[in-house]
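Section 5: illustrative case.
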């Protein structure tokens, strides 16, 4: 009996198993759907479908850099319980996911590498079978840079960070001042959770909303409009210091901003102008 695409789809809908697994089972069962379902159940592949609807709010954020720190990937891999997140099988899965993502050609879209019919998707199915819990790679990102990337994981992998630094002079990548800066920046992003890398990135509607709140606070102040506008600008500076990376106070010294930390490190490297054009911060469960 010919194994048609429609037949494969029917079996996939019934079991949730991968396309190739369904095709192989149908071939072995001579096109008999129920026999193919039985074969997949025996192999544990149909069990993943029964777990597919269960919530996956636990897990780990895995990060991995290339040896030269020019490429980096980050992925949030989820499961149902923190207990399973700590198992060797799950941690091996996370490590393999980041290894596969980093091994892809530069510029590859990670989203195309985490689908159900990819090597990562097949490994997810196998690990679901081993652990008995539903799992998913909820999101993934990759950075390729001519600068240097730093990475950090916090709380045992509950928070993962990639941060890009540009402007480092050639040959200074291993200078103590720079390696310390990279580490501090990645730790800062993990702890302070900035949302933007520049003030210009803050959406105009967000800025206008903040201004509206500040105006509302001073409606009955009796102050002249020009004075109120100056106060609003001052309050906006405080807002930016909460959400914009260079404006944030560093986690080591609240009196020093990230911008000042970058400037000081650049000065120690011979007057370099260092900047952070991009960062990625994943906290497990926040995308659910």
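Designed sequence:
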């Amino acid at each position: 009996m010919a194994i048609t695409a429609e037949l494969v789809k029917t079996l996939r809908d019934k079991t949730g198993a991968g396309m190739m697994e369904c095709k192989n089972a149908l071939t072995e069962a001579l096109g008999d759907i129920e026999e193919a379902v039985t074969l997949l159940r025996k192999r544990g592949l149909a069990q993943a479908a029964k777990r597919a609807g269960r919530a996956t709010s636990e897990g780990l954020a895995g990060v991995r850099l290339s040896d030269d720190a020019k490429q980096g990937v980050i992925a949030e891999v989820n499961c149902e319980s923190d207990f399973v997140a700590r198992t060797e099988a799950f941690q091996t899965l996370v490590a393999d996911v980041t290894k596969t993502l980093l091994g892809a050609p530069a510029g590859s879209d990670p989203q195309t590498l985490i689908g159900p019919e990819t090597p990562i998707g097949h490994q997810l199915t196998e690990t679901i079978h081993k652990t008995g819990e539903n799992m998913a790679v909820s999101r993934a990102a990759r950075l390729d840079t001519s600068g240097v990337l730093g990475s950090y994981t916090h709380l045992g992998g509950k928070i993962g960070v990639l941060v890009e630094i540009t402007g480092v002079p050639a040959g200074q990548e291993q200078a103590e001042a720079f390696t310390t800066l990279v580490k501090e920046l990645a730790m800062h992003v993990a702890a302070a959770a900035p949302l933007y890398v520049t003030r210009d990135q803050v959406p105009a509607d967000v800025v206008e909303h903040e201004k509206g709140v500040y105006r509302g606070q001073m409606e009955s102040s009796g102050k002249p409009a020009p004075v109120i506008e100056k106060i609003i600008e001052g309050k906006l500076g405080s807002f930016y210091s909460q959400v914009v990376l260079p404006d944030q106070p560093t986690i080591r010294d609240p009196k020093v901003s990230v911008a000042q930390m970058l400037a000081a490190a650049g000065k120690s490297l011979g007057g370099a102008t260092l900047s952070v054009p991009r960062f990625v911060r994943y906290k497990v469960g926040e995308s659910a």
